[in-house]
Amino acid sequence: QVRLVESGGGLVQAGGSLRLSCAASGNFFRINEMGWARQGPGKQRELVAWITSGGVPTYADSVKGRFTISRDNTKAMSFLEMNALKPEDTSTYYCGAGITPRAGMDYWGNGTLVTVSS
After folding, report:
1. Residue 94: which residues within 8 A CB-CB, separation 6 or more?
2. How many CB atoms lie within 10 A of CB 38?
């Protein structure tokens, strides 16, 4: 089992920035890919960024150029730097971890709320 705990959410004005962190524990040595997804009220969960064990990132079009994902394998952590935030970025953000490459996320955290005011 892998346990993921997110932190760093909060209220920010449009155009502002936030940095989310995710700490993995348990059998974190099994983790291959890490990612971040978000889900707003009444919306489906959207995977916005993920990163391979080798540090190669991929972004959804909705956040490309504004969000940056990174990871620290020595500390079993991932990060999501969010810049130029928009009101439509308001969501609960979830950290994910995948065991098998290119097979999606197997574990999710409980989420951290990001609210962007206009």
Report:
1. 6, 36, 37, 38, 39, 45, 108, 109, 110, 111
2. 22
Residue type, 100: T
Provide the β-strand partners of residue 57.
Answer: 51
- Who contacts 29 (Cβ-Cβ below 8 Å, separation ≥6)? none
Comparing CA positions, the residue from 93, 88, 116 lying closest to residue 8 is: 93
One-letter amino acid at 18 equals L
What is the rounded distance in angstroms from the CA atom of residue 97 to the CA atom of residue 40?
Answer: 20
58: pLDDT strictly greater than 90: yes
Tens digit of each residue's pLDDT (9 = 90 or more) over 85-95: 999 999 999 99
pLDDT at residue 97 tops 90: yes
